[in-house]
């Protein structure tokens, strides 16, 4: 999947959430198919969608939808890449707060593990300023 296609799909996915315009609804089906069939491309898609979120509500939408589905389907294939993104991205840490998993499931154990590793940053609640997070990431 090329970067331009990924950008277009991510934009359409979040724009469908924002506007509910039917012309963007294809992106939801595309995301579901991608997550089912190609975990690595699905993860790249999730990262891209998170990068275009404007607020925590949009991050939560992505987290409780495509991110959660991806983790439950493919945790063993993507956990290292997810952990690296959690380590590097506050937006990803915020997203992980919204992922639900049944007790003692592989996803639940993964969430507990990364929460311990990152000193509670996954579960702490705070005001999220998306613009400051993104400008800090660009500066680094």
- Distance between the first and last residues' Cα: 27 Å
Low-confidence stretches: 124-128, 132-140
> What does the largest sheet look like?
none
* Oligomeric state of shown chains: single chain
- Annotation field: number of helices: 7
The global form is: globular
- For the record, the count of structural domains works out to 1
Average of the residue pLDDT scores: 87
Radius of gyration: 14 Å
Pfam family, one: DUF6869
Protein name: DUF6869 domain-containing protein
Domain DUF6869: 20-105
InterPro entries: DUF6869 (IPR049221)
Topology, please?
Layout: H1 3-19, H2 26-37, H3 39-51, H4 56-88, H5 90-97, H6 106-117, H7 130-139
Please, could you describe this protein's structure?
With 140 residues, the chain is mainly α. The protein has one domain (3-139). It contains seven helices and no strands. α1 packs across α2 (26-37), α1 packs across α3 and α2 (26-37) packs across α3. It is globular and about 40 Å long. Mean pLDDT is 87; it is low at 124-128 and 132-140. Residues 20-105 form the DUF6869 domain. It comes from Candidatus Bodocaedibacter vickermanii. This is DUF6869 domain-containing protein. Pfam families: DUF6869.
Summarize this structure as a short list of keywords or feature phrases:
single chain, about 140 residues, mainly alpha, about 75% helix, disordered C terminus
């Amino acid at each position: 999947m090329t970067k331009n296609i990924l950008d277009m799909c991510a934009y359409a996915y979040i724009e469908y959430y924002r506007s509910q315009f039917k012309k963007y609804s294809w992106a939801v089906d595309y995301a579901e198919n991608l997550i089912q069939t190609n975990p690595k491309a699905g993860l790249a898609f999730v990262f891209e969608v998170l990068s275009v979120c404007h607020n925590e509500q949009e991050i939560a939408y992505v987290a409780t939808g495509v991110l959660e589905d991806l983790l439950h389907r493919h945790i063993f294939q993507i956990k290292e890449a997810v952990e690296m993104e959690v380590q590097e991205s506050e937006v990803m840490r915020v997203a992980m707060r919204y992922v639900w998993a049944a007790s003692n499931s592989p996803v639940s154990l993964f969430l507990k593990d990364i929460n311990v590793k990152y000193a509670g940053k996954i579960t702490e609640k705070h005001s999220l300023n998306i613009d400051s997070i993104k400008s800090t990431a660009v500066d680094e």
